[in-house]
Write a structure and sequence with these properties.
Blueprint: H1 6-24, E1 38-43, H2 72-79, E2 119-120, E3 123-130, H3 134-145, E4 150-151, E5 162-166, E6 175-180, E7 185-189, E8 199-200, H4 202-216
Antiparallel strand pairs: 1-3, 1-5, 2-3, 4-8, 5-6, 6-7
Length: about 220
């Protein structure tokens, strides 16, 4: 059997360390996501009054009308293009014509959800999808589990448009994450968030946008 020289051994050792580092770069519990059932929820980030009309909101983007009481964080998120994730804007929340390219008109009444409406971590569920594709699971694991995807630039509000639930073996509770693009903020439920920051970087939002398209088609 041929004997390895020092240079070959060094290359092998470096490759092994790099491989081990890559495996460890995804922080727990997200390093186990590829083997977990994953459900992604589209959530109603804000529940407006039963009847709404277009009106300016103090603190919102200048010149953009909005229904009464709508938080300025959601107002700004929408008027800035909703980060390419317009399908996550709750139906009936906004007056027609507010988003560029949509027909103007009077704001329709917005019905309050029934008391028994399905909810995820207290927020009304508008739709859900199972992440069945293994590549999509890996993308979610990398997205949530990589520290460099997050920074300190976030608002203190939490109006989540997306919820992600990672099932754990019984009797453990699922690891749930709320994602608020309008507040640039993620929040862990039932487990300790592994990173020092919870703010979404712009590149991270773009990655979420691609995942959203695969799951919800928009």
């Amino acid at each position: 059997m041929p004997r390895m020289n020092t240079r070959t051994l060094t290359i092998v050792a470096v490759a092994a360390v790099a491989s081990l580092t890559a495996c460890k770069s995804i922080a727990p519990p997200f390093d186990r996501l590829k083997d977990s059932p994953i459900t992604v929820y589209r959530l109603q980030n804000y529940e407006p009054p039963a009847v709404a009309t277009a009106t300016p909101v103090p603190g919102a983007t200048a010149g953009a009308p909005m229904i009464p009481g709508l938080p300025p964080e959601i107002q700004n998120w929408v008027t800035q293009g909703a980060a390419g994730m317009g399908s996550l804007i709750p139906p009936g929340l906004l007056p027609p014509g507010l988003i560029p390219g949509t027909a103007p008109g009077a704001a329709p009444p917005v019905a309050a959800p029934p008391p028994d409406a399905p909810r995820f971590e207290g927020f009304r569920i508008l739709g859900q999808a199972q992440a069945m594709d293994q590549k999509l699971k890996e993308d979610l694991a990398t997205l949530f589990g990589t520290e460099s995807n997050f920074d300190s630039a976030m608002a203190q509000c939490l109006y989540p448009e997306v919820g992600v639930s990672f099932q754990q073996p019984p009797p453990m509770l699922p690891d749930n994450v709320l994602v608020s693009f309008s507040c640039n903020h993620v929040e862990a439920k039932n487990f300790q968030w592994p990173h020092p920051n919870k703010g979404l970087k712009q590149e991270t939002i773009k990655k979420f946008s691609e995942i959203n398209k695969k799951l919800f088609g928009g």
